[in-house]
């Protein structure tokens, strides 16, 4: 009986003492398939500390859509040349790849690759002045603040210098409630927020990533729930993309339109000659207008539009109630 009582007494201490360390870092080949959920859900950014509850039990899903979170060998990645020294990539839903390496004392990132609505494929690289993600052990209350610099490359902007700052923390330990009545106790949440700034066409552009990863190491060394938001902010462009993934499938569902996915993309942006428009749109219902509302006569052919003769400036592309802004150089 004494031994049992001692165990019960110390159990909360063991729980609160869990942390991120080299022994529970996911290895190359690790994979977790997660269900895509409503991007409009609560991020619970302010729900922090010990013994907290993150209630996603009523979370709506996107029926039948699964995204993989997986760890790959960074040296085999086609973009590896931009991320010297990286050992692994954490790929989220085939849309975001974070390059990183680690040793017994810390985990650092050499940058990431993501697909942005306006700029297309963006390579954010800081292989020399790396970004510090965590120092081991990284327990509840642990945090880092770091500065980094490097370059951002896209087909629209070319390669331009950038610098940024990141803040990471283990900001909570508690209970994660997921759909289907599933409850996971002693879950740790890792929070990453970083912002990189570059000058694009004489205008500051901020790339802001805000990501919450929920871990239950009794089940997986990869997140069992993930909320990731990436914003591009500037005087000319203001785009935001949110990805929410859950280990357990939702029991209620929203359509693509409700999830903010029934839209269209334009690429490249800014544009000089030909702009490509993709999405659920009616080619005959697409119009271009300037900021004064005057329509411009242009025809969409096979998802592309030749705007070579369009005067330089800022324009809007409209398709029904959907509107996108683009810059003509």
Summarize the structure.
By secondary structure, the chain is mainly beta. It has 1 helix and 24 strands. Strand 12 (158-178) and strand 13 form a beta hairpin.
> Which percent band covers the strand fraction?
over 45%
Distance between the termini: 78 Å
CA-atom Rg in angstroms: 22 Å
Query: Helix share of residues?
Result: under 10%
DSSP helical segment count: 1
Oligomer designation: single chain
Query: How does the helix and strand content classify structurally?
Result: mainly beta
Main sheet overview? 12 strands, antiparallel, barrel
Let me know the number of strands. Answer: 24
| Low-confidence sequence ranges | 1-16
Element-level helix/strand string: HEEEEEEEEEEEEEEEEEEEEEEEE
How many domain modules?
2
Q: For the residues shown, what is the average pLDDT?
A: 86
Question: What is the approximate shape?
Answer: globular
Model description:
This protein is mainly beta and 329 residues long. It has 2 domains: 15-253, no CATH class; 264-328, Immunoglobulin-like (Sandwich). The chain is 5% helix and 57% strand. The chain is built from 1 helix and 24 strands. It has one helix at 2-16; strands at 19-20, 31-37, 49-55, 60-73, 88-92, 96-102, 106-116, 120-129, 131-135, 138-139, 143-154, 158-178, 182-200, 203-215, 225-233, 238-246, 252-253, 264-267, 274-279, 286-290, 295-296, 304-306, 313-319, 322-328. The strands form 4 sheets. A 12-stranded antiparallel beta barrel has the order 2-4-5-6-7-8-11-12-13-14-15-16. β15 (225-233) and β16 form a beta hairpin. The N and C termini lie far apart (78 Å). The model is unreliable at 1-16 (pLDDT under 50).
């Amino acid at each position: 009986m004494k031994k049992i009582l001692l165990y019960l007494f110390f159990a909360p201490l063991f729980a609160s003492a869990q942390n991120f360390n080299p022994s529970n870092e996911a290895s190359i080949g690790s994979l977790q398939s997660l269900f895509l959920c409503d991007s409009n859900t609560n991020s619970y950014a302010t729900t922090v500390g010990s013994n907290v509850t993150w209630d996603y039990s009523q979370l709506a899903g996107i029926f039948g859509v699964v995204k993989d979170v997986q760890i790959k060998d960074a040296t085999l990645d086609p973009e590896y040349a931009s991320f010297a020294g990286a050992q692994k990539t954490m790929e989220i839903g085939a849309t975001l790849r974070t390059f990183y390496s680690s040793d017994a004392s810390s985990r650092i990132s050499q940058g990431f690759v993501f697909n942005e609505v306006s700029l297309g494929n963006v390579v954010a690289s800081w292989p020399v002045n790396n970004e510090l993600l965590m120092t081991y052990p990284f327990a509840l209350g642990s945090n880092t603040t770091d500065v980094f610099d490097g370059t951002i490359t896209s087909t629209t902007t070319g390669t331009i210098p950038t610098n940024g700052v990141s803040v990471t923390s283990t900001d909570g330990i508690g209970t994660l409630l997921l759909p289907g009545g599933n409850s996971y106790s002693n879950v740790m949440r890792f929070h990453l927020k970083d912002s990189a700034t570059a000058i694009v066409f004489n205008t500051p552009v901020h790339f802001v990533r805000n990501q919450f990863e929920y871990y239950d190491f009794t089940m997986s060394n990869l997140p069992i729930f993930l909320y990731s938001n990436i914003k591009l902010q500037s005087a000319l462009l203001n785009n935001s993309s949110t990805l929410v993934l859950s280990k357990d499938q939702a029991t209620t569902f929203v359509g693509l339109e409700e999830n903010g996915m029934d839209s269209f993309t334009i690429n490249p942006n800014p544009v000089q000659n030909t702009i490509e428009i993709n999405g659920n749109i009616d080619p005959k219902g697409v119009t271009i207008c300037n900021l004064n509302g005057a329509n411009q006569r242009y025809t969409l052919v096979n998802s592309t539009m030749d705007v070579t003769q369009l005067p330089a400036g800022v324009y809007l592309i409209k398709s029904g109630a959907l509107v996108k802004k683009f810059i003509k150089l």
